Prior knowledge:
Shape: globular
Largest sheet: 4 strands, mixed
Radius of gyration: 20 Å
Order of helices and strands: EHHEEEHEHEHHHEHE
Strand order of the largest sheet: 1-6-2-5
Number of strands: 8
Distance between the termini: 21 Å
Amino acid sequence: xxxxxxxxxxxxxxIDMPCLLFLxxxxxQSEYTTSSHPPPTLNGExxxxxxxxxxxxxxxxxxxxxxxxxxxxxxxxxxxxMDMIESIAERANxxxxxxxxxxxxxxxxxxxxxxxxxxxxxxxxxxxRTQYKCxxxxxxxxxxxxxxxxxxxxxxxxxxxxxxxxxxTLPYHPPSTxxxxxxxxxxxxxxxxxxAQLQSEGEVGPACAAENAAYIDFLRHAYPDMQFxxxxxxxx
Length: 236
């Protein structure tokens, strides 16, 4: 199952979405086009942007030498998506504050519940950084809260359901990086049906899959008899 190399953008409902989407598309055009027809700007507005950790796209490092007001370590962000945000911000004249998924979103695994008086130390925990849909929820959930952000950028799995609602270019992200593909390469299992059959016979255990990602729902629907274990979407 492929992932689109282009970041999926979710925008908060309180922003003029058609205008901002048009602005972002203009900002990614060629230098010739933008110099001839400068895009509109956001007049220095500061946007809260949520990103999910993914090696090479959004790298997150705890900067223990710099601390926040609450004593926690600051975070350093780098990668393809971060470069894209910086370029868009420069062209569209806005500033931004980067956030990781808060953990309060409706689609988060091990979700935090505000009514239970969760402490601030629980919010933005490292375990939420790799949860794609968790970050998406910080933008889409209603009603708005102190943890709501303006925009979410992250990799986007191309599933049959999403192909019915969106148009995608052909991704070139190598499918061999998928956890299930690597599982098959290592064991000699040639297809999903064979894996499910061996699981039912007790020959192999559950397959590992990245937690909180859209392709989990697709796999469970396509292969209802297959056993999965969701694991953090990291390289460890």
